[in-house]
Structure formats: structure tokens, C-alpha cells
Amino acid sequence: MSRRALLLSLVIAAACGDDRPVPGADGPPGVDAAVSIRGARYCEVLPVFITGDQVEAQVWGTQGLSDCPAAAWAALDPSAIQQQLGAVMVVMNGPRHWVIDGAVAFTLPTAEHRMFGDLEMQLLATVRFPISQLGNAPYTTRTVARDTSFTFFAGAEIYELIAPDGAIYVMQSYAQIVDPALTEAALPGLGARLAPPAGWRYQVRTLAAPLEVRAAGTATVVQDELQNTYQRRVAAGG
Fold this sequence. Notes:
The protein is mainly β and 238 residues long. It has helices at residues 3-16, 70-74, 78-85; strands at residues 41-51, 54-61, 89-98, 102-105, 113-116, 119-130, 142-152, 157-162, 168-175, 201-206, 211-223, 229-232.
């Protein structure tokens, strides 16, 4: 795999590990207990810069601003964005759809806004890591800085990856990057498409009670080969 491809893979994984929730209309980011954001569509643009032996990726997203209209997203030219910003590359991370019902971010940066074509986006995070960490592959876990709570309602269907050591990773978003035709309706049968390493398995279940997947300072995330993103569940319940 080329250095550029490795960089692309790692930047996408890092950014997805730092997906920010949809801000509520009033007050702090979050979701009303009676309203689900499940299925909400969003997109991110990640300009990537390299300084010395450090990689820096800015995460600009439509979360809380729009559902990333398809025509506006398709019209974006990553080469033009790269040239405009002086980046070494631009990662188009989307479209993505939440498969969580609610989210709260306990710490958020002051969001700077800018236009990418006809899409308004806000700066959600800046991801930094050494070039030496290049080489993130599907089903490789990664720890990212995050203080968030993802919630799933009772009765919700959830999609999980079970690691060889028994750790459970709950899907937070599915991607239409590798497979633009992927929909939530296909997720129950996704296990037949995935080819995880020995010891990993995909499972689908319906929650008897609400589930919270909390990241108190750090989150451990993993992606499958379709770039769907899962977060490790460390608390009992569900």
C-alpha cells in the first residue's frame, strides 16, 4: 500500500473516532430524550497538513448545520480545496449516517464556520498524530481523545463487532464511502458481507433497555472494511 493510501486510511479512522454529535437547537450539544438522531446524514471534509514528523487533520463537518445535500457534496472538488488551503491532501469523509439515538459532548471546541462550496461546515476537531503511526487497517483498534455519551433507546436494533478478547464495539455510524448504496436496512445482514480476521464476529441485537456508550476522556474505536465506525462499550448494560 502506498504512503498516501496509508495516510488516507489513518486520517479517516482518526476522524471517525472523533465524530461530534449533532448540536441541539437550544443550549449545549445533545438530543432531546424523545427525539432520535438515528439515520441523520452528515459529511466531513478533512484537510491534512504535515509539519516535521507530525500529521494534522482538521475535521470540518455538517453536523448540526445540514444533512449534507447530495448535490452540494458531489459538487465539492477536493483538489481545489487542497490547493486553496495549502494542504498535502483532502479527505472526503462521507456521507455518513448515525445509528445512535442521542449524543452529548461534554467538551467541544469553539466551532469556527466556513463554506465549502454551498455547504456550511464547522470545525469540530483537529486530529494530530505522528507519521510513525501510519498503517491503520480495518479491525485495528485505535484510542482517541473524546468525552462523549452515545445513547440507544430501548427497542433499538444495534450492530456490534465482538473482538477475540470479548470486547464489544457498538456501531455509531455507517458510511457510504466504500459502498455508496449502503443503507441502514442492509445493516442486519452486514455480517454476510464482512470478512473480519479470525476471532472477530458481527452481531445484531435488539435492546431490552436503554444503552449508553460513554467515552470519559478517551474512546477505543474500530472500523470494518466498509469504514463503518464502532466504539468500544466499557460499561455494563443493554
